[in-house]
Design goal:
Rossmann fold, SH3 type barrels, 3 domains, 7 helices, 19 strands, about 25% helix
Length: about 350
Amino acid sequence: MQTVFVGMSGGVDSSVSAHLLMEQGDRVVGVYMKNWSGNLETRRGTFSFPCSAQADFEDARQAAAHLGIPLYTFDFEQEYRNRVIEYFVAEIERGRTPNPDVMCNKEIKFKVFLDKCLSLGADKIATGHYARVTAVDGVFQLKKGIDQTKDQSYFLNTLGQHELSHTLFPVGELEKSEVRRIAQEIGLPNAEKPDSQGICFVGEIDVNAFIEAFVGENPGEIVNEDGEVLGSHRGLYFYTIGQRKGLGIGGGIPYFVIEKNQETNQLIVAKGIHPDQLFSESVEINELSWTMERPQLPAQFGAKIRYRSKDVPCTVEATDDPSRLRVIFDEPQRAVTQGQFLVLYQDDVLIGSGVMN
């Protein structure tokens, strides 16, 4: 019998994960990770998080009680601030578009949480992610979840062999509808709880209010490619490449953000339904992560440039800098965004990732 510590968020996926592990004979321990309290002090005052933490904990407590397993609380609030929020703010200040969910998984769930669970005698940890881990000749592979509409492997793209060898994703083999059916069948009190749409562990925050609380406003000009001033912006970090709404300019044919000039503090836009300037034939990535050994390059992969995008065929090749790779798309891609993760797949196996520059 192996001992598995399950990260229980209060949602139905992690609760069903705990149930499935019990069904296969594992000794299951539930853990609720506390990563924020109601208020957070910033350089500009106090930011108030949504008040869902206590409700989520209560949902996790009720689910654990229903399953008959213990539930502990691990306080990672300081680690979350230092490793996730500070990363988010630093990337925003650089004019990039960060992904706190990826960093939350890398630094909290599969680092401090994993390490603490192992130190307390866990053989493995489990979460409610829709992904799969399989072992082939002693090598652990990270795969997409069976339910392609819920697949969350993208957010797990920094995990390596150590993390994968100690991790289980019980619902990754199921469709979401089956998870809901199981929850209802066993009478889980959170069987009908809606899925969370917010930032990992933070809830459904107003991201612009979050940014303003940490870095404030830094107004500048909105210009077209010829330098003609069309309007003004609140701060480059409130906008992302490809954005159309909220620019406060135009009428008729829309404008899209195509560049953020940090030196001049100008937001550069182009007019048209599908402006050519929004499309890129290639991109360089750094901060590389590999789930297995680094593959021989050049090689063909499927690239996902954002969570909801489809895998697009590409060629990955080395550059003169060993810490960077060049990704050449078979077809130009829209709104390639600095700071976001580009994730490489071979069919349903996640091979590695890097941050787009």
